[in-house]
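Batch manifest, entry 17 of 40.
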Amino acid sequence: GESIAAGVVFTLPAFLFLSDGIGKGFFNYWTILMLAIFGGILGVLMMIPLRRSLIVNEHGNLPYPEGTACAQVLIAGDKGGDFAQMAYRGLGFAFVYALLQKIFHVIAETPTWFAAVKNKYLPAAAVGGEITPEYLGVGYIIGPRIAGVLVAGGVLAWLGLIPLIATLLGEHQDIIAAQLGKLNLLDPAQANARYGWDPATQEFGNLSEAVYRAYVRQIGAGAVAGAGFITLFKTLPTIIASFKESIGDLRTRGTGAAVSRTNNDLSLKVVGIGSLALVLLMVILPGVPGDSIGGKLLLGLLVIVFGFFFVTVSSRIVGIIGSSNNPISGMTIATIMGTALVFIGVGWTGKVFEPMALVVGGMICIAAANAGATSQDLKTGYIVGATPRYQQLALFIGVVVSSLVIGMTVLFLDTPTKPGIDHAIGNEFNAPQATLMATLIKGLLSFNLDWQFVLVGLFVAITLELCSVKSLSFAVGLYLPLSTTLPIWVGGAIRGLTNWMAERKGEKPEDEDLGKGSLFATGLVAGGALMGLLAALWSAKEAAYPEGQGWLPVLNLEESIRHSIGDVNYELLGVAFFVSLAYILIRAARSK
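Output type: structure tokens
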């Protein structure tokens, strides 16, 4: 459900931000429900034929960290003894760590170092880390190679591109403000706390974040799209082989021969009939924008084509770095750009076609997000020996049930609590992702968007492939903040370090899923995620209280600690906790 919710929230509120009088009529419960169900079902449908090629045949290359972690917890619990003890020990450490971080705020969330704008060597560079146990565990599970390529993209962005752009435009920060204004992320005439923009001095307090949002993120989106296309092309033989196996299963069922239980997927007929039904429903139902049957058919065709492409890309990405880091907004940007190019090719330009482009982008965003979560579930099932067919049926039910709730939740959040406004979204809630999607659609269909940044990212991906580097991991690192990829790299580096220590002593490196380090890392992922969920539920419960009331403000010790030891030492204290947790992970991995 959380993946569908993310896809809905990232895109569908953009109906409110399209050109005046065009999109607001589509922001209603039935349209949200319909697009959420269609997108979620599309994500599950496309993963049916892809399961064998990505989950089974790429088992050694795509670890799917959350899926592997869930499977290891189940297996360890079943085996008991040292296996369960190590996994639950990691869970306990992570739970306490996350409690101190998310409830008591003793541990800083994201310690960050900023270089001054006038710095001679690295102007406006920034190095930070979301020092959570989940990221440390994910990094250990995926290993040093993938984690290293991932963080390399972030290093290029935050220690290369951002300082370069800051050097070129540091004396003309109004140009950066204008670019952010073009993306609807900033009003250059008004002060902005997020970027520290001061219209009087024409300077940013947080220039690195401003440059990242204005330029680097678009470069990263281009890199993700390019790397995704390259990866899809390279894996086509595997995908085709999986389709042949699925067709062979159809023939096997026709002859009455048995298919092994753990290889028993839903039939390709379900994929074909389901995809056709989605297209027909988009044509028939009135909630889908479009005045003609031909126009709605084109939307359906684009959804199926882009859906297959980005479901494949999404599954591979979460197979590398996990669902929580899935750059679905980058894939949505690429989808919207591709859709706009098709629209322009058939002469569909102008604001009247904006809602139609958003329908394609929204459904693909939801499909890609749900495909990532579906992949983790299928990975868990593959490891523990579940029946894929029953998992897939359960996932379809989950899509419908969660979509029923998500539509009501989004509209509830949109209910204004202040007089004089019609929608809370866009006024009380900024909805930056949805604002960006609407801005892209309006800019593309009015021929007013900068393509050069996207093309830079595309050629970065091509260059990496020419150097025999897997571009998808690097592209994701380029798109995501360095604060996300750096702690993942620390976990991967620890895996590499413990393997090196084992080899040095003549021991066998840990390469099995049930090694001590992997089990402890699994516990870190599970414990951090569990505490994060509890903290989110608690925060949501107290959101209705008047400001400053409730237990969370009382338990929050951040202000008192900062007052006692200073801001810098508070962040260093967080780093010390993270280093301690990393040391415990090393000891766990090296334990006998």
